[in-house]
Structures are given as C-alpha cells and as structure tokens.
Amino acid sequence: MSTAGAAPKRRTLIVNSALRAFTEVAGKVASIVLFAVIARKLGEVDLGKYVLALSLTQIIWVAGDFGTNRYLLQETAKDHDFIRGVFFDAVGLKVVVAGGLTLLAFAISVGISGFSATSWLLALVGASMVCDLVATVPLTIFIAREEMRYYTYAAIPNKYLQALIGVAVLLLGGGIVAVGVAALVSSAAALVISFWLAYRHYPPPLLRLRPGRWFGLMRRSGMFGAQDLLAQAVMRVDAILLSLLAASAAVGWYGASYRLIDATLFITWSVVVSATPMYAYLSNDSTPSLRDIYGDSMRLVMALIVPISVTLFVCARPLIDLAYGLDQFEPSVLALQLLAFSPIFYAVSNQAATLILTRTNGRPVVIAFAVALVFNVVLNLILIPEWSYKAAAAVTLATEVLLALFCVIATRPLVSGLPWFRLLIAPLTGAAAMAAGEVAAGERLWLALPVGAVLYLGVSIGIEVRLLGGTLPRLRRDATAEQAVVIGPTEP
Fold first, then answer.
1. How far is residue 420's CA from residue 204's CA, in Å, rounded to a whole number?
2. Which end of the chain is least crowded, N or C, by CB within 10 Å?
3. pLDDT tens per residue, range 364-420
4. Does the residue 398 lie in any domain?
5. Residues contacting 12, CB < 8 A, separation 6+
6. Which range of residues forms the domain containing residue 146?
7. Distance (Å, rounded) from C-alpha 277 to C-alpha 288?
8. Which segments of 224-314 are extended strands (E)?
C-alpha cells in the first residue's frame, strides 16, 4: 500500500466507527429510556429482575457465540468468500447452543421459583437474545467488508422497536413480562432485516448445514470464545453475586448506575470493531502500519471516552435524578461515581486484547481475564456482605484497572513503543478543564454539559493540533497526498 493509501484506511476507521457509534447511541438512548420507564412505573425490584435477566442471557450469549463471530470476522476480512461456506453452520451452532442454554436456564428458574414473572422474563429475554445472536452472522459480513452502513440499517429498528413497544405496554399498565415480549418481537424483526440485507447486497451463502464440523468451528474460535466468556463473566458476575448476597433493591440501585456505564461501552466497541479487519490484514511494514492504526484507534477511543467518564463522575447526582429519580435511586449516585472511570480502562484492555487475539494465539489475554475473574469474584464475596452495591462498584473499577495493565503489557511484542504521552495528554488535559467547568456549574445539568463540552473540545483540540501535530493534521496531509495521486501532477 502506498503512503497515499493510508488516508482511506484512516478515514474508513473514523467513518465506520462513527456509523457504529451512531447505531449504538440510538440503541443506548432507547435502552435508557426503557430502563427509566421501568424504574418509574414498576420500581427498583422489577428493574432488578430485568437487570438479572439481561446479565444471565448475556453470559448465555457469549457461550452460544463462543468467539465464532470474531473468528468469522477475522477470516472474512482476509477472504470475503470465506463466510459463504460456513454461514449456516455458524447459524445452526448458535441456535443449538444458545437456545439449549436458554431452555436450561428457564427450567432451573422454574424449579426454584415456579412459573413466576421472573422465569417468564428470563425465557422471553433469552429467546430475544437467540434471535440477536443469529442476526450477528450476516452482520459479520457487513463489518468484515467495512460496509458499516448496512449494520446500521439492520440494528437500529431493533433498538427502537424494543423501546417503543416496551414503553407503550408499560404506559398501558403492562408488567415486566410484557417488556420481555417487546424484546422478542423487536429482535425477530431485526433478524429478518439482517438476512434480507445480506442476501440482497452480497453473494448468497452456500445452502449447507454440517453439524459434524461445528466442533471444529468452535475449536478454531476457541481463544476468542474463552476471552469473550471470561470478559462477560467479569462484567456480569457482580450483578449476579449482588442478587445472591444483598437485597433486591441493592441490585436495582447498582443496575441503574451500571446501565449508564454500559451505555458508554458502545464507543469502545465501535472503534474496536471498525479496526479489527485492519488488524487482520495490515502488518508493521504496510502503510499505514499495524502500529499506526492501533495508535489511531486508541487515540480516537480515548478522545471520546475520557470526557464521558469525567461527566459521569462530576454530574452523577443530576444524571441519576434525570434518568430514574432520586426518591428511589439516590444510592445509585455513589455507585455511579465509583464506576465512572471504569470505561476508560475497559477501552484500553479491549483494544489491546482484540489486537493480541487477532495477531497471536491469544493465550496471554485468556490468562489475564481468568485472573481478573478470580480477583473479581473473591473480592465481591468478601466485600458485598458488608458494603453491598458499593463493594460491587469498587471491585468492578479495580478489575478493569488490572485488566488494562495486563493487556497493555502483552501488546508490547506487537506494537512496541506506542507513544502513550501523545495519546493521552490532549484528552486528559481537556478533561481537567471540563471537570472544572462542570463543578462550577453545580447540579444544573443544562449548564454543566455544554460548558464542559466547550472546554473539553477547546483545550484538547488545541493541544492535539498545535502542540502535538496530531491526528487531524496527519489526516489532512494524507488526504492531500491521496488527492495528488488521484488527480496527478499539476500542468505547468
């Protein structure tokens, strides 16, 4: 690839990250609205049931996928025809494993609490999850071909339908089980749309189903699967342990604050997913190099996630009041402040882990996440009985810090000498200015958010452009070089 070829790749990273982020923003806004209506209409106990059902089905999701999506993405990025031969094998594997685990979870819930609202909610949210999981197979085609707009077309209807139907049934007097029905209906619609887009725009997959090869598919994606399973366990085990060791209200308070944190993780996923195809086919000798794209993706995600974490910490009280109301959810304020900076460390570990898994056998990442899971579980078991939801939040932050440290160290053989000072100085300095402005604005959210945004953008962009000659000037130079190649030399 020529030097001019660097510009399209960097633009692809930014544009695809923006499209993925737009899709996730739409979904997170819809999700937060739905959570807020559940909290206000049904209270913290039913919200805790919903959080628990989502946590359990997310773990089932990871087991049902077991890294196949990331393996398919990696191989399809290198060979676009690869997925045609394994498309329906991947679909069948997901249906059998995730569907079977959902039925098992439902049976266990029935055995414990009978055919209660909790059991039916788990079944409905689980069935919705299976539909979403199957839909990821055609979505992988869009991502691997770096055509993120089709991902957006398929995903947004799911996000909005679930919120619209769920809010409507709640306003009409429906209960938490009706919210589960809304999730299933919206996921089924999104599944149909994703298959239709894949068949319309790309060569159709081969119509063959070979169960005998499913084990081989799982084996080849094993390291991805192990990391995914451990990562989801790290993210969700705190809510599960809290439900076993503390009151239902504590689960609701923690779940309310964690949902705001969870709503920020799409930023990391958006950048990582957009960069993953490039991690698969770029090298340290290409232009741009693997190190260049990794550094650009890390700079991009830090520039986006640092100000959000600062706002969640400084403005925790008005944000909780706006989303849920302080009358029932005031304890969520402290939980949110404890969790506020965990997305920064999550972004670092996720970027680093994806690079390692794409370029190596991934064993260091799996070991790091296994250690982090043990660390998380042991500390939660010790601290939750005494400190309840506050312990769960603090342990989550400590776990993310540990993971980020391990994963960054493990990337050194692949991208040594990454300029961390250059990557972090602009967002951290901008965030300091932002925090000062938001503190001065007090709890007036309508004033704190715009003031903080203006201060962050002014300071961070000023440092990035004027002092460091960062990404923006480099993109401008690359674009000029590409234009010269396309247009050719100017006539004398």
1. 44
2. C
3. 899 999 999 999 999 999 999 999 999 999 999 999 999 999 999 999 888 877 888
4. yes
5. 146, 274, 278
6. 3-418
7. 13
8. none
